[in-house]
Amino acid sequence: MNGTSAKDPFAGFRVVAKRRESETITSFELAPPDEAQAPGFVPGQFLVVRLPTGNGHGPILRNYSISSSPHDSSRLRITVKREPPPADRADLPPGEGSNYLHEQVDVGDVIHVNGPRGDFQLDPDSTRPVVLLSGGVGLTPLVSMLHSLATVGDRRVYFIHACDSGRVHALKDEVLELAARRPGISTHFCYRFPTDEDIASAGFHSRGMISREVLQSILPLDDYDIYMCGPPAFMQANYRLLRGLGVPKERIRYEFFGPATVLDPDDVEPAVTQTEPSPSVQGEALQEEGVRVVFRKSGKTAVWDEKAKSLLDFAESLGIDAPFSCRAGVCSTCLSTLVRGEVEYFEEPLSEPGPGEVLLCCSRPKTTVEVDV
Ligand SMILES: Cc1cc2nc3c(=O)[nH]c(=O)nc-3n(C[C@H](O)[C@H](O)[C@H](O)COP(=O)(O)OP(=O)(O)OC[C@H]3O[C@@H](n4cnc5c(N)ncnc54)[C@H](O)[C@@H]3O)c2cc1C
Ligand code: FES
After folding, report:
1. Which is the closest atom of ligand 1 to the Cα of 327?
2. Which residue CA neighbors atom 39 of ligand 1 most closely?
3. Is the distance from the beta carbon of residue 367 to the nearest atom of ligand 2 less than 6 Å?
4. Which residue's alpha carbon is at the smallest distance from atom 42 of ligand 1?
């Protein structure tokens, strides 16, 4: 494998370091081709990685958040959890991309990446205190944010991380080193199943799940910017806790590492107006009630929720199973027919969809739309 070609939107980056961060998590430092500068990125963004697979169904695309400092222009780092089979289905194969990276990719190899992409981004203009709240490998974009916050400015920062135990706690020393760089950065580690070693070394602050009491004890009453990333159950539980503590929705930004999930059903307006198969939008009258989305195959029509990131996320929040892979406008897996209406792209697709087509993962409706999912 080698560098870029004129048409290939992926660039070959050389793996210059591979480091085991925990029992399940490994980092890969990637240097751009020809000793060029690494592309700039905003902390929180991710790379799309194209990986060959051994089973003949062609390359696969996976997203990995950049976990390194935006101030290091020589390389980008991704930090990857080896995905095992689901706990109740040991017969299934383990995660294809993450296991390929862990097992097959070594220092000196070249892997093909596109990006940076994504609008989960640290707001550089805000002066509010920042809470970086993560579960498991969801800490990766937040560590990049911590690099930035520890280097520039003097905002108060609370880095709160939950994981099973010290065995799977990645990037701990780096986070502690960043927190020690200047006053005003504090850390809290919550272990669900601390080991004897964790207990002997007092390497964590609380045990079990992050609770209302824990959050209340760490966070004085204030107006925070919250950035949150972790498994869906973690996100749902902590979103509820934060809302219960009075944090407004618009202060909570979050990233899912997979299909989007409704964080709090109580926050969702009763949007579905029709579950019968709908051949088309119900006349112009619906437009008067706001922008609507008609999912033709699923027979669902709903008022567009401005909080939804994309048409794909919106479909998933309604329980519609739409195909996707990269969630970043790269692979075209989410391509659907745009039966009517207009959309806008918040992430530029790698190749422009044809007339009457729409990429669901990176678009939002401009008018009432009807799509063929
Ligand atoms: C914006 C974004 C950022 C991300 N950042 C990171 C990051 O920084 N670090 C990170 O580690 N991950 C990150 N991810 C997740 C990452 O993109 C991958 O989804 C993850 O690595 C799993 O991919 P995989 O190919 O290993 O697993 P997959 O092959 O996609 O498999 C996923 C799971 O499905 C199981 N499975 C296999 N076959 C079947 C079957 N037939 N039926 C049911 N289940 C099956 C597998 O065992 C596995 O548990 C991010 C995702 C997004 C969207
Ligand atoms: S999921 Fe890849 S382009 Fe939409």
Report:
1. 53
2. 92
3. no
4. 92
How confident is the model over 174-231, as pLDDT tens digits? 999 999 999 999 999 999 999 999 999 999 999 999 999 999 999 987 899 999 999 9
Is the CB of 92 within 6 Å of ligand 1? yes
What pTM value is reported for the model?
0.89
Q: Which residue has the tokens 């905003």?
A: 42
Indicate which ligand has the atom closest to the C-alpha of 117.
1
Q: Which one of the ligands is nearest to 27 CA?
A: 1
Question: What does the pLDDT read at residue 282?
Answer: 46
**What own/partner pairs with CB < 8 Å and gap ≥ 24 does 329-335 have?**
329/117, 329/359, 329/361, 329/362, 330/9, 330/48, 330/61, 330/114, 330/117, 331/61, 332/359, 334/359, 334/360, 334/361, 335/359, 335/360
pLDDT at residue 3 tops 70 = no
- Which residues does 46 contact at the CB level (< 8 Å), separation at least 6? 63, 64, 65, 66, 115, 116, 117, 118, 141, 328
pLDDT score of 327:
86
Sign of the dihedral through C-alpha 133, 136, 141, 142? positive
Q: What single string gives the DSSP state of each residue in 123-179?
A: -TT--S-EEEEEEGGGGHHHHHHHHHHHHSS---EEEEEEES-GGG--SHHHHHHHH
Gap from CA of 115 to ligand 1 centroid (Å): 18
